[in-house]
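Morning. Coffee machine broken again, so started the prediction first thing and wrote up yesterday's gels while waiting. Chain of 220 residues, entered below exactly as on the submission form.
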Amino acid sequence: MFNVIRFELGNLFQRIKNVLNPIYVYRLLKLKHNNTISLNLGSGGNGRQDWINIDARPTHHGLYIAYDIRRKLPIRSSTVERIYAEHVIEHLDFRYDIPKLFAECYRVMKPGSIFRIVVPDVEKFVNAYVSKEQSRWDALGLADESDDLAFVSPMHVLNHVFHQEGEHLFGYDFDTLRIALENANLKTVVKQAYNQSLDKELCMDQQNHEPYSLYVDAKK
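Came back before lunch.
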């Protein structure tokens, strides 16, 4: 809970700083005149060169602006050529934040552009739990991490996937994510694999997330 409160206070403080920061204001104005945007939402420390990398935390590498993506995106409609969101939307509230974000993504996307989402694949974890087979857990790449994360049981792992000390707010399988995207009028939703996409420019997945991730492309 402390991490959540700290995050929210950090967002509020950053919004105040942005208003007073001339570099932020300049970049925002420049962004609103850009017609060929590749957008990286929740970029973390994996900012891409020549992309618009947005994250709530201001200290990440390659950041264009520090911005809370739960708010209206500061981008004109139909100017984005592609969107990438790797391990970020599970940190947003499914009922309130996700419909608004997906609607905003649809608004800013050009016709034919791709929105690629990567999230923890909860179905894989549930299948491993039900099977009671250690090999399934090992396939998720947890064997090397279990000592650091101090997992005491398979149920502990499931709780970590769903909650991650309050940072994760929702768990996804393909059908749930597909429905959320279709509700935002993104009607062509395709389950993909690691570094497999309808847009080759979106084949930039982090390899360490591969064993336990769900990869989805949504086309406008």
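The beta strands are 37-41, 52-55, 65-66, 80-86, 109-120, 188-192, 213-219. Going to sketch it on the whiteboard this afternoon.
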